[in-house]
Design a protein that fits this description.
Strand content: 25-35%
Shape: globular
Structural class: mainly beta
Largest sheet: 4 strands, antiparallel
Number of strands: 9
Length: 174
């Protein structure tokens, strides 16, 4: 579904769809970006994910990713990229938000997958590393003691926090 959305994205715009991921529904949001768009927005461009009107796929779970202009700094970077974000909200995150003592060690309160593609080729994923400014991911899960952000390291087949920083927003979320 993600590749289909990326392949059909209009020249300047956003597309979204809902997919089934195991027992959960996920929202996929894809948006085409250019360096000029990011610079015009102050050097960071934010893409937000929230359920389409009339859908409760994520409930009140909303997430965002903020892409810095540094993504376009590499010599082999395409002129335009498509950012595809897949968001899965956990129904337990609202319960934990109300009462942090209900959080279980190792529980996943929300998940997000972020992929960058060359806008000229849906098959051409773009590797990004060593950015001067980070890609910021916002997930509305409670900032409870011991919570951390992690990613699935496909080479190690394990969760990793390498290169990530978990911080609390003024709203009390991470």
């Amino acid at each position: 579904k993600e590749a289909s959305l990326v392949a059909n994205i209009p020249d300047s715009g956003t597309v979204q769809g809902v997919v089934k991921v195991g027992d959960f529904e996920a929202l996929i949001v894809a948006e085409k970006l250019s360096a000029d768009m990011i610079e015009a927005s102050g050097g960071q461009y934010e893409i937000k994910a929230s359920a389409p009107e009339g859908s409760d796929v994520l409930g009140d779970f909303k997430a965002a990713v903020s892409i810095p202009s540094a993504v376009f700094a590499g010599a082999n970077m395409p002129e335009d990229v498509v950012v595809a974000m897949k968001v899965i909200g956990n129904s337990n995150s609202a319960e934990v938000k109300e009462d942090p003592t209900k959080a279980k060690v190792g529980a996943v309160l929300g998940a997000m997958s972020i992929n960058l593609y060359s806008a000229s080729s849906a098959d051409g994923s773009v590797a990004v590393s060593g950015l001067a400014k980070p890609i910021l991911v916002t997930m509305p899960v409670p900032a409870i003691p011991g919570i951390s952000c992690a990613f699935w390291d496909e080479a190690a087949l394990a969760w990793s926090t390498v290169g990530l920083t978990t911080s609390s927003a003024p709203t009390g979320e991470i």
